[in-house]
Amino acid sequence: MSETKPIPVTKQMVWVAYKKVKANKGSAGVDGESLKIYEERLADNLYKVWNRLSSGTYFPPPVKEVEIPKEDGKIRKLGIPTVGDRVAQMVIKDYLEPRMERIFHESSYGYRPNRSAHDALAKARRNCWLYSWVVDIDIKGFFDNISHEKLLLAIDKHVNEKWVKMYIKRWLNAPVQKEGGELIYKEGKGTPQGGVISPLLANLFLHYAFDQWLTKHFWGAKFERYADDIIVHCRTKEQAEKVLEKLEERMQSCGLELHPEKTKIVYCKDHKRTGNYEHVKFDFLGFTFKPRTSKAKKDGYKFLGFDLAISVKAGKRILSTLRQSHFHRWTSNTIEGIAVELNPKLRGWLNYYGKFRKSAMAFIFYNFHRRLLKWIMNRYKSLRNNIGKAYGMLMRIRKAKPTLFEPWKQGFFAKGLKMTKAV
After folding, report:
1. Spatial contact of 199 and 111, defined as CB atoms under 8 Å apart
2. Can you give the pLDDT at residue 415?
3. Among the four 202, 331, 338, 390, which has the fewest Cβ within 10 Å?
């Protein structure tokens, strides 16, 4: 690094940041430049990022807004920075993260090194066995409503470097470019959901707005937080009601609002916890926690427990993705080719949702095999109207190549498939 540069950003820092951005992939920003195009002039592009960051002259371009449809018919807005801006953000994120990690709460799991959604789910599972009540918290439009003023106060507590604060302010104030090209400027709140540095800033904001506050005022309660997905465990209904009442006030004081329909108090009902209550289940990180039949490990005794498995919403999303692929129409492809195309997604779903009660995913792979059977009937004319022979062929393929598809490797195969419904 040149001694004339006033800011201690090195070329090595930029290179490490680029490698992480490359690993995370992602689409093009407002400039339409994909990772592949960016890498055609990689040395020049990275030099430009380093030169501007280290001299204080880096200004982020607008963030591309992408609308993602949600299950309830509403829209989730994601902000996609350019590739170069993602590299720049990663440099500052890497610089700040170690000191933030020293202060963050042990019950915060989202977007932190060496912590995962599975860690949060396992802890939530244990706490549901120990605590009878859960406050299921949903913050309305969290990323769009983060107060810049309050966030910068939190930054000031841990960051002395003026250049770091300068760049954070520039990213917070960077406009959003809508699909039609219109630029929307922020009015003191919001950070793009999709930005590289946004999760770190969001964690810092909620560290003070929620983690520290709950620990101080309700020391007997436990919680798990994954970014803005939060559940709080309480021993009594009265405590849960008090937490919810005070939390509504706390969020308002921080410029946030709890979603009135999605935030609720849940009773963790099992064979020991009797009584009838309005809510006995909740969703967290793609899983549904609710009363389920469980089996004791020692003697196989069955009892009603409170446990988690893939949520109906997550299952429907997976089925929708399989349906939209139309792989049963890929008649010019071989079954090995289909496996190559689908296995990465199938493996990802199984690795994530199969972590807890993998058997609950059976309905997904039943539908997958129905569609695979349809592919055989479409590909081979002699089997088009003979479901029995088509099923026999599928059985033979599985026997000859038991590891061809990821679900087969993990013990899923639907017996007695019925093609009574359209696929």
Report:
1. yes
2. 60
3. 331
Neighbours of 238 (CB within 10 A): 10
**Can you give the pLDDT at residue 1?**
42
Distance CA 409, CA 423 (A): 24
- Distance separating alpha carbons of residues 358 and 150, to the nearest angstrom: 42
Q: For 337, list phi and psi in degrees, rounded to 5.
A: -65, -40
Q: Which two tokens stand for residue 105?
A: 């709460």
Do 277 and 267 touch, CB atoms closer than 8 A? yes
Instruction: Give the pLDDT score at 414.
Output: 62
- Nearest Cα to 168, choosing from 185, 187, 186, 191? 191
Q: Please give the pLDDT value at position 2.
A: 46
Mean pLDDT over residues 139-160, rounded? 96
φ, ψ for residue 405, nearest 5 deg: -105, 145
The dihedral region occupied by 339, where left means phi > 0, alpha psi between -120 and 50, and beta the remainder, is: alpha
Exposed/middle/buried for 230, CB within 10 Å: 0-12, 13-18, 19+?
buried
d(C-alpha 371, C-alpha 376), whole Å = 9
d(CA 406, CA 397) in angstroms, rounded, equals: 14
